[in-house]
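If your schedule permits, I should be very grateful for your opinion on a structural question. The matter concerns a single protein, recorded as an amino acid sequence and a row of backbone structure tokens. Could you please explain, in whatever detail you think fit, how the structure tokens follow from the sequence? I set the record out below, with my sincere thanks for your time.

——
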Amino acid sequence: MEPQIEFRGKKEEQHIARQVFSLMLRQGAMYELDAPIRQSLSALTDYFLEHKLLRREREEAARLIESALNKNDHVFARVEREGEVFYVTSRRGRPVAERPEPALPPRQLHPTPGGEAAVPQRQVVRRPPLSPFWVRTAIRQIQASRAQVSTALPTAEQIAISVTRKEGPSTELRLEDGTVIDFRLQPEEIFAYHGQAIARVLREVLERDFRVVSFGDAWYLEEELEHFSKGRLAEVRRYILEEETPLTDLAILTDVFLKKPTDPDYEIWAFSLNARLLREKKDFEYVGVAGVNLWAVKDLPAIGSRSIKAAEVGQDYAFLLEEGEAAGRPGQLEHFLTFYEYRHGVLPYDALARAFFPPPFLEEQRSAYLRFEIPQHYEAYAVELRYPVGNRGGWLWGLEEFFHSSLVPGALLTISRTEEPNVFVLQYLATEAQERRLLTYDERRNRYTFEDTTFYCEVEESLLLSEERFPRLRNTTPLPPALRRRPADVVAHAFTLVGRKEDGGYRASLEELYPVVNIERPFSMEYLRRVLDTTDAFTPADEEGVYLYTPAEEE
């Protein structure tokens, strides 16, 4: 039973102190009555914010929790260790000091009758296999004990795992979704059939346990982790800024903390560093992928295009959110470059790209930093993969310089993986010199013009914006932002530039429209068809792949 304690302070501070005590009481459920139960202020702040128990900024929430616990010093003892604040209480609700482990007197070895000291032999004890009966019994006991603790925090009852009760010993466990686990099977069979369901339930349980910390799919007891002071974290931030690029956890541990992968405690140091940096969202951002943990900080040189803002690119690629998933994972990615992509140095994060590139490693991960190697030019580029967020689509950018120096719109790109999960190889089909008058954007005059261009790459002729094929594009100006944001207006504008006049309207094929609509904003062929089929101003012609556009009459 939870002891009756009178908490002090304002009403909100009393409520916070009561929640913290209930949380620590759960943490120390198996402790002795007077054993110290310890939690850090930073961990308490993270818990209150993650579970929306406080709706404030992090620093303000930390100050409020600290004030509430300091006013209840008859329950919590305040301890500072290596620049971090901890609070300690006991199951009786009294502040206790953390006890050092008792020192034992030196052991005396008595000589044997033969005159030699006896050498103690350590007996190897093998852990018996975990019985399904005891697993079920432990679950029932934990649920029963937690049901007696009245608390506002999530309890075991909220984890919907019900044990099927039958006459005699039960050999089945029924999960919330109806999955039945039969413990008569071998462990290998159980995990082969129900591994994902078990992992899901375990994750739900672990996420509610305040004593463990997660990073990705790894979990550790918090009390076993290394603690990093604010000063050491400031060193890490300065080091990343000095290098002017995101750094791996391996580089940070090696150069800042002098830890090597061969050290016996390297794994726990690596986990501790990644878990702590993940908490410091104000200063650090995770930009890695599975297998390579990369960390960035604010004020690093930006990757991307100066000709367009990230918010606009995300809105332009919003239509990709409606695409279905690709069938399987492609071995390599092939893509024809459009004018929009060429101008801004971007590539779409479409269904094929989602299946090809590594997905987000952490929840709410905004981006990942990749490295694109160009073996044909002995060059490499830092590329940022922006994942879809909310109503904005995803894309890759950072290739503007390479596109402008080596390619033209219509070029075929091939992207392949390497043994490193964040490194990719980008290639194109090289050819003899070709000369055409191709469309270009004159930034000074803010208009599109044609220039004599020499290029050395294989292109798709239907995507090449040449003066011979699209003469009416000469000296046109970009659409105003209000019109550019509306896909139907962009398509209508393209009809006026490439279509043939017919009965007061315009007639054009998909092959003519596709490269032109991709001047102002990105379109896939499927998305172009969807806009044409769902907008009243466009109607299919009697010829396959040809559409008519009838402008609305001006009032």
Observations:
- The radius of gyration is 32 Å.
